[in-house]
Amino acid sequence: MVLGADGVVLGDIGLVLGAISVVLGADGVVLEGDGVLLGTDGVLLEVDGVLLGADGVVLGADGVLLGTDGVLLEVDGVLLGADGVVLGADGVLLGTDGVLLEVDGVLLEVDGVVLGADGVLLGADGVVLGADGVLLGADGVVLGADGVLLGADGVVLGADGLVPGADGLALRADGVVPGADGLVLRADGVVPVAGGVVL
Predict the structure, then answer these.
(1) Beta strand pairing status for 65-66 and 170-171?
(2) Which SUPFAM superfamilies does UniProt cross-reference here (predicted)?
(3) Rg (CA), the chain
(4) Half-sphere exposure of 22 (CA within 13 A, CB side)
(5) Residue 99 · residue 93 · CB < 8 Å
(6) How many other C-beta atoms lie within 10 A of the C-beta of residue 163?
(7) What is this structure's pTM?
């Protein structure tokens, strides 16, 4: 076979072969009459500088499958997002290793918990969480997964942040018993000092 000057394939005796004219590029790639690259199976390889894969699927510059609108597609059952980032079934960004990635500078973790840029865990509502996923409050007070308040030392606290005592009195985190008016009480429930005078 011989490629004629006009790009048609000629047989050994100079006759045009086949009903469809085919043009070969310098590297042996089949071209349509308009110069668009075709694969050996007739599937377009390039249109306006954009590579096409099987079934007309667009390939990005790095060979990642794109839809005709440029949106990344599923590959082996995994949805790809921008820049080749894998999307989980719920649309959450995943790395190629399946680990959740940063979104707007925040590293995503499991169950809506995020890891802030400073390494602090945040709940879905932005509330700071401890390393074990418990809610951190003021003065090291934490709210356990069961909703119980715990002091920094792990002692159960009442809703007011005080340690409930067996006698109905409550202890502050520093072990002092405050009265209803905030004055310090003795163990017997009496205010030892009022206005500088011991009672």
Answers:
(1) unpaired
(2) Adhesin YadA, collagen-binding domain
(3) 36
(4) 19
(5) no
(6) 18
(7) 0.21
